[in-house]
Structures are given as C-alpha cells and as structure tokens.
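Protein entry
_____________
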Amino acid sequence: MIEVEIKDLQEFIELGRDNPSELDEIKNQLTGTEQKIIDLEEESLYSEEFDNHSAVLTVNAGAGGVDAHDWAEMLLRMYTRFLDNNSMKYEIEEISSGEEAGIKSGSIRIDNYRAYANLESERGVHRLVRISPFDSNKRRHTSFAGVDVIPLIEDSDEFDLNDEDIRIDVYRSSGAGGQHVNTTDSAVRVTHIPTGIVVACQAERSQLQNKIRAIALLKSKLIILEKEEKLKKLDSIRGEQVEAGWGRQIRSYVMQPYQQVKDSRTNIEVGNIQSVLDGDINIFINEYLKWRRQGLND
C-alpha cells in the first residue's frame, strides 16, 4: 500500500512541475504518506508474542550490601516516576525492606497496553557508582541491582497448577508505598516447589485477593518457563537470568568521578543522571526496541 502511494507521488511530482497549482495537493499527500511511514516504523518495533501484554517488573538488590539495598529502592522510584510520567496504571505488588536502608526487593504490576514491550529493556543488572552516603570516609562504592520483567498472560487460568507443587506463606507487608501498598497481615508469598520460583503480593487488603494475584503471576512465570523450554532459546522470550554483580550489567549509572548513564547494549549515553533517576528513561526504551528489532532481523 505504501509502495503504491510512493509510486503515485513520484508521478504526481513529475506532473506538478508542469502544473504548479497542484503543488499544494501534492505536499498534503506527501505529508500524509510520511506520517504513515512513521507509524509503520513504530509499529514494526512491536512484533514479539507478548509485546502487547501488561507486565510485572521486579527489582532485587544485588552485590553491594546496604548500598545495593538503597540502589534497589532508587531504581524502584525511577520506574514509578516513569510510569507516572507516562500515565501508565500500576500497583506496588510487594516490597521487602532492607535492614538498614532501602529495599531487598520490590515488584510493580503494570496494567497497560504494551507494558511488557516498553519495559523489557530494563531486564538485567543495573550498576551504580557513587560516593556512598553510608561510608563515613566518603569513599566511592559500586553496587548492583537486578531487574526482571515478565508479561502477564491473560489466559493463565488454562495452565494447570498442582496444589502439592506450591507452598503458601502469609506475612506482614513491609516497606513504603504510599497509597499503592497496605500494611496489614495479608501479604502472601507463593513458592513453586519444583522450580523454586517465588512470587509475592501485598497490593490487596484481602489475603484471598493477594493469593489469587500471586498465583496468577506464578502461572504467568511458569507459562514463560514452559515456552522457553519448548523453544530452547531462553533469551528469545525472557533473557538470561544472571547474578547481579560484576561484569553482568546492561546499564551503568556513574555519579562519581563523572556523571553518565550508559546502556551497554545500545551504547546510548545520557549525561543528566538525575533526569534518568527521575524516570526519564524513554530514550533507553526506544533505542532498545530498535536494537531488538535489528537482532531479530539479523
């Protein structure tokens, strides 16, 4: 269709040289065709099976002690700011506070069209270099946090989950979350014994509701795992899950001795680290989608 329009425009342009009165109409058609090309270019970024799905994003503190816990909390804040800035509906599913500061882990459920595609870029290890606020000698520290993103699969009820394969623990919610998290005794943690996969939910005030949401999330994870095993290409759906430590990072955030955020996959660099930490990560997402598309076409 676009090819036909381009061919027609070429003919109109040739005719327009002899009929200047038609130039305005040709310009309007050219503008419309250009917009269609832009729309097709953007649409081509979303071609994977789960791209249109909602998602759950989880941040886990990695190597670095209390600095890593603080870094995990900073990342969680970065993502909530991004979601707020882009009017994406979300809830904090679970937060586990660190002993001294920050968080050990935190999960966000994002109910939005193409949430998974637009957050898949964040999966991996994130590295922070800064002068530690927890070091009385003001030395530079490196800390790590791991981010995982999975799609929420709507038909997960069709997946059979045996009761004897799961263990359900109830505990009290912890961590700050404002209006997005409650602090009752209704938090639920579900462990899938055969695989060791653990999910937790504290978003709802009802223990039953949290159990239902946690099991639905567990089913989504198991469906993804099953597809990975069938296709025998782990990184095509979910990416390699690695320890959050040295040499594994997908993105580095350097505050000292200079300021820079660099994505190791796309080589995109941003000098305004505070803007990034305030949720301005669109450039990383857009460049990742282009990088992913290129990889699929190679």
